[in-house]
Design brief:
This protein has 765 residues and is an alpha/beta fold. It has four domains: 128 residues, no CATH class; 137 residues, no CATH class; 179 residues, no CATH class; 99 residues, no CATH class. The chain has 22 helices and 32 strands. The strands form nine sheets. Strands 14, 15, 16, 17, 18, 19, 21 and 22 form an eight-stranded mixed beta sheet that branches. The protein starts with a helix and ends in a 10-residue tail after the last strand.
C-alpha cells in the first residue's frame, strides 16, 4: 500500500505533468486532404514517466527526449533543483502548485485505505496500451509471403517464327505468383492453383522490312475488300428512292467504319495519295461530283494507292512490342498514316486465347482443344465438341424410382474416344428441372439415394432455379450434393443466388452459373465463401450479344458484379467481428482476383497474376442479409502486395432497413468509410442506383442516433452517403432531441434536420 504522504507528492507531480503532456499532444501535426481518402497522422509525443520531474522548464535527463522541438533544457545531475515560488495565474484566481513541495510543519500521516479510491495514477504501461489501441478501420499490412519454388526468370533472346519470317525477339517467362501464408491457412486461395497468363512477355521485337511489309499487306488487303464491298454503295447514283446518307443511318457499323476514313479523304493533298493515272482525272471528277458528296468519296476510295500510305509511329511502336495491327480496327489518321484502334499479339503469344484454350482443355470436365466457347444451344443441351451424349434415363429411372417424363429428371452418359480426355470418359450426368413441382420435390431424396448407393455422378445440371418462386428452397438440395463433384451447372431464373453458400465445403472441380435472363443485372451477387472449394468457375460461355432476337432466351454465364455476405459471416460481439467478411473481401478482391469470375464486368489487366490492382473486380456490395451492418465500418478494401498498396472502390451498396428513416449511430457514421470506399470522381453512370435498401419499406430519411458529434471524416462520410450515393433518396436527417449541437451543425451545412419523435421510426415488418 502506498503511503498517504507519497500519494500527495504524486498528486502534486501529476498536476504539473498533465498540462505539459496535453500541450505536446496538441502539437501533433495533423494533415487532412479535403479531397483525399487518406488522413496522414505524424504522431510525435511522449509519456512522462512517473518518477520524472519537470522543474523550471527543464526536463529530467532520465526522461526520454521528445521528437517534438519543445525547447526544454535538460537538468543535469549536478545542477541544484531550485524551489519554484507559486505564481498567480493571470486568467483565474487558482494558484499554480509547484512540483517541489514547500517546507511546512511536519505532521504524522496515517494510512487511509479510502485514499486508494480517491486518486491513483494510471501506470505508464496502461497509458501506452491505451495509445496503441487499434482503430476499428485498420491500415492494410502485407502478409508473410511463402517462398517461391523457383527464382524469377530473366529476359532472354529467342527467334520467333511468324508467317515465314524469323524475328529476333527478347522475352521474359512469367514468374511464379506470390502466395501468402495466412491466405493458405485461412483457405481463401484456390485449392488448385489457377494461373491466368502462362504466356511469356515479349519485351522487344526487331522490326524488319519483312515484318513491316507483312503487317501492311494485311491492312491493305482488308481496306481494299471494304472498298469493293462495304463502300461500293457510294458509287450508286442517288434518287428519290435511294440515299447513301439513309443507307449509312440504317447500317451503323458501316457508318462508323466510314468515319475512320473521312478525315483522310478530306485532306487538302488527297490528290497526292491517288494512283498516277487517277491524279490526271482528279480535277474533272471533283467538278463532276461537287454536288454528290458520297459519290466523290466513293471515287476517291476506289482510286487511292494504298501502298503510298505509311504506318504511323504508334503502329511502329506496337510492332516493336510484338503486336500487329488488327485489320478490322485499322483507320487512316489525319496525317495520312495507317493506325489502329486495336492490336493483336503474335501467334502463340496471345494470353487471352491461350488461357481460353487451356481452360477448355484442362479445366472443363468435358474438355476440348480449342479457344472457341460453346453456343447457347450447346449450353442448354449440355453438349461439347468431341463428346457423344446418350440418354440412359430408363435404366437409372427404374433403379432410383424416377419417372423422367413426369418428374422432369433425366440421366445421360457422355463419352469421348480421345485418350487425353479419358479422365471423365463415360461420365454420368443428372439433369433436373426445378420448374417441375414433382421433380423438385423428389430431388433431395434422389441425391440422397445416389450418395448412399455410391453411384459416381460426374455432373448435376439443375434448370429453372427460381422460375416459379424466387425464394424456392435450394440450400438443402445443394447441401446434400456429394462432398466431391467434378461438375455442377446451375441455371437461375431469378437473381436470388443465396443458396449457393451451401457449396462452401464441396470440392467442385467445375461450377457454371447460367441464366437465360439478363445476365448483367447489378442484382446478381455471390458470397465468396460459396466458392471457397471450387477449383474452376466457368466464365467461358458468355453469350451476350445484340445480334440475338429481342426476348429470346439465350443461356449464358452470369456476370456477378456484386459481393454479398450472410449472417453466418458476421460475429457480432466477437473481438474481431469482421474477420470472416474481411477474409471474403480479400479472397474476392485480391487473392483470387486473377480468375476471370472474380473480375466483374471488365476483365483482367496487363498482368492479372502479378498486379491484381490492375484487374477489374466486383464493384457492388450487398450487406442486406445482415441487418446489424449499417456501414462499411471495420471492413478492409485496401491491400498490399510486394510493398505496393492498391485500394478498391465500390460503386454500389445494399443495406437493410425496416424503417423509413435508416438508423445509424453518429459514431458509426464517423467510422463508416463511405467517403474512402464509395466516393467516386466524375459523374455517375446513367440510371445507376448506388444505394439500395431491402426490408420492405421505402427509405427516405436518415436517423443519426446517439449523443456524439460528427468528425471531419464523419462529415465527409455523411455527404457521400446522403448526396452522392443517395442521389435524391433522402428528404431529411433525424437527430435525438438531446443532440442540439449536431442539429445545429447539420443545419449549418444545408441539410433539412428534424428532432426525433415517436412517429419517425415506426417499423413496418
Amino acid at each position: 500500500m502506498i503511503k498517504a504522504k507519497k500519494k500527495k507528492i504524486f498528486i502534486i507531480t501529476a498536476a504539473v505533468v498533465s498540462p505539459i503532456v496535453v500541450t505536446q499532444v496538441a502539437a501533433i501535426p495533423f494533415y487532412v486532404k479535403i479531397h483525399s481518402d487518406k488522413v496522414n497522422l505524424n504522431v510525435a509525443f511522449r509519456v512522462i514517466p512517473q518518477n520524472s520531474l519537470i522543474e523550471n522548464g527543464a526536463v529530467d535527463a532520465y526522461n526520454s527526449i521528445s521528437n517534438i522541438d519543445n525547447h526544454l533544457k535538460l537538468i543535469t545531475d549536478n545542477e541544484p533543483k531550485p524551489v519554484i515560488v507559486p505564481k498567480e495565474d493571470p486568467y483565474n484566481s487558482n494558484t499554480l502548485v509547484s512540483s517541489v513541495p514547500i517546507d511546512k510543519p511536519k505532521e504524522e500521516l496515517k494510512d487511509d485505505p479510502k485514499d486508494d479510491d480517491k486518486l491513483s495514477l494510471v501506470p505508464a504501461e496502461k497509458e501506452k496500451e491505451k495509445e496503441k489501441e487499434e482503430p476499428i478501420n485498420k491500415e492494410p499490412e502485407e502478409e508473410v509471403a511463402l517462398d517461391k519454388s523457383r527464382p524469377d526468370p530473366k529476359p532472354k533472346d529467342i527467334i520467333i517464327e511468324y508467317n515465314g519470317l524469323k524475328l529476333n525477339a527478347n522475352i521474359t517467362e512469367q514468374p511464379e505468383r506470390v502466395k501468402y501464408k495466412s491466405d493458405v491457412e485461412n483457405r481463401i486461395t484456390n485449392r488448385v492453383d489457377y494461373i491466368n497468363n502462362t504466356i511469356p512477355d515479349i519485351n522487344k521485337v526487331e522490326v524488319t522490312e519483312g515484318f513491316r511489309g507483312d503487317n501492311k499487306k494485311k491492312v491493305v488487303d482488308k481496306i481494299e475488300w471494304e472498298v469493293n464491298n462495304t463502300f461500293r454503295v457510294f458509287n450508286e447514283k442517288e434518287s428519290e428512292t435511294f440515299s447513301v446518307e439513309r443507307w449509312l443511318d440504317q447500317n451503323p457499323s458501316a457508318k462508323d467504319k466510314f468515319k475512320s476514313y473521312e478525315a483522310f479523304l478530306n485532306r487538302a493533298d488527297i490528290k497526292d495519295f491517288l494512283k498516277t493515272e487517277s491524279q490526271k482525272e482528279f480535277d474533272k471528277k471533283k467538278e463532276e461530283y461537287k454536288n454528290a458528296k458520297y459519290q466523290w468519296y466513293g471515287w476517291l476510295l476506289s482510286n487511292v494507292d494504298w501502298n503510298k500510305i505509311q504506318a504511323s509511329k504508334n503502329v511502329e511502336d506496337y510492332l516493336a512490342k510484338g503486336m500487329t495491327t488488327s485489320p478490322d480496327n485499322v483507320y487512316i489518321n489525319a496525317n495520312g498514316e495507317f493506325d489502329s484502334y486495336a492490336f493483336s499479339p503474335l501467334p502463340g503469344y496471345n494470353a487471352v486465347t491461350s488461357r481460353m484454350t487451356r481452360d477448355n482443355k484442362e479445366k472443363r470436365t468435358f474438355g476440348y482443344d480449342s479457344y472457341y466457347t460453346r453456343s447457347p444451344r450447346s449450353v442448354l443441351e449440355g453438349t461439347y465438341p468431341g463428346w457423344n451424349k446418350v440418354m440412359i434415363s430408363e435404366e437409372y429411372g427404374k433403379k432410383y424410382d424416377v419417372q423422367p417424363e413426369e418428374d422432369g429428371i433425366n440421366f445421360f452418359k457422355l463419352t469421348n474416344d480421345k485418350p487425353e480426355f479419358g479422365k471423365n470418359n463415360g461420365g454420368i450426368v443428372v439433369e433436373i428441372n426445378a420448374g417441375n413441382s414433382k421433380g423438385y420435390a423428389k430431388t433431395l431424396e434422389l441425391i440422397k439415394k445416389l450418395n448412399a448407393s455410391g453411384e459416381k455422378i460426374t455432373s448435376y445440371r439443375i434448370f429453372n432455379i427460381g422460375a416459379k418462386d424466387s425464394e424456392q428452397k435450394f440450400y438443402k438440395i445443394f447441401e446434400t450434393l456429394p462432398k466431391k463433384l467434378p461438375q455442377l451447372e446451375l441455371f437461375f431464373e431469378s437473381t436470388n443466388t443465396s443458396a449457393i453458400l451451401a457449396l462452401e465445403d464441396k470440392e467442385i472441380d467445375e461450377l457454371s452459373l447460367y441464366t437465360s435472363g439478363n445476365s448483367l443485372l447489378d442484382d446478381w451477387s455471390f458470397n465468396p465463401f460459396a466458392l471457397r472449394n471450387v477449383a474452376f468457375i466457368n466464365k467461358l460461355d458468355y453469350n451476350v450479344s445484340s445480334d440475338y432476337p429481342r426476348g429470346a432466351k439465350i443461356p449464358t454465364v452470369i456476370t456477378m458484379d456484386s459481393i454479398a455476405f450472410d449472417p453466418v459471416n458476421y460475429k457480432k460481439g466477437a473481438e474481431d467481428a469482421f474477420r470472416e467478411i474481411n477474409l471474403g473481401l480479400r479472397m474476392a478482391l485480391f487473392v483470387r482476383n486473377n480468375e476471370p469470375f472474380f473480375q466483374g464486368g471488365f476483365g483482367p489487366g496487363l498482368k492479372p497474376d502479378h498486379n491484381e490492382g490492375g484487374n477489374s473486380y466486383a464493384t457492388g456490395l450487398d450487406l442486406s442479409r445482415i441487418p446489424d451492418l449499417k456501414s462499411l465500418k471495420g471492413m478492409q478494401f485496401s491491400f498490399v502486395k510486394e510493398g505496393k498498396r492498391f485500394d478498391r472502390k465500390m460503386r454500389r451498396l445494399i443495406l437493410y432497413s425496416d424503417q423509413k428513416n435508416f438508423e445509424i449511430d453518429v459514431q458509426e457514421m464517423n467510422d463508416s468509410q463511405f467517403y474512402k470506399v464509395m466516393h467516386l470522381e466524375g459523374p455517375p453512370n446513367p440510371g445507376e442506383e448506388r444505394l439500395k435498401f431491402r426490408g420492405g419499406v421505402k427509405v427516405d430519411g436518415i436517423y443519426l442516433s446517439g449523443k456524439g458529434k460528427l468528425s471531419s471524416e464523419g462529415t465527409q462520410n455523411l455527404e457521400t452517403f446522403y448526396k452522392e450515393m443517395g442521389r435524391g433518396m433522402f428528404a431529411r436527417i433525424i437527430v435525438d432531441p438531446e443532440n442540439k449541437a449536431l442539429f445545429e451543425d447539420l443545419t449549418s451545412r444545408g441539410y433539412k434536420v428534424e428532432y426525433r419523435n415517436p412517429d419517425h421510426n415506426l417499423k413496418f415488418n
